[in-house]
Amino acid sequence: MIASRKVEKCAEACKNLSALGVKAVPVKCDMASDADIKNLVDTTMKEFGRIDILVNNVGASTDGPHVVDKPYDQIEYEVNVNYWSVIHCCKAVAPVMMERRWGRIVNLGSGVALVGRAGDSIYAASKAASDHFVRACWCRHIISQPATAVHE
What we know:
Distance between the termini: 23 Å
CATH topology of the domain at 51-150: Rossmann fold
Number of helices: 5
Radius of gyration: 16 Å
Shape: globular
CATH superfamily of the domain at 51-150: NAD(P)-binding Rossmann-like Domain
Number of strands: 5
Mean pLDDT: 85
Structural class: mainly alpha
Low-confidence stretches: 146-152
CATH class of the domain at 51-150: Alpha Beta
CATH architecture of the domain at 51-150: 3-Layer(aba) Sandwich
């Protein structure tokens, strides 16, 4: 499954994979939308019958104004994409993985989550929160191996 808000890019990547003999299905998915995430999981189960690996590779930043000057809609968008989407995706796939007693969740993060950056405090905080959420899932045995946190 290759998912993005830009389904044309997904289709292009799937076409390239298909040329290599790999089955891939493009799905339009806004990671800030619970309905889109549910559709992604449902489509994956329909097409492949299982979910082995979830890669949380999402990020949104409205880089710019200090948090004091940043409009709430920009703050909410960054938190929804960088943090809540990770929770929703993990929550959606965890039952499938737990039933099979196997699964991996990889959370791609950012070095900014560790050190911060001027004008990007919401991004940094939400990426750090998503990293710790995935680690906490492992601690509670929702996933079978330590979560992988890859930082830029």
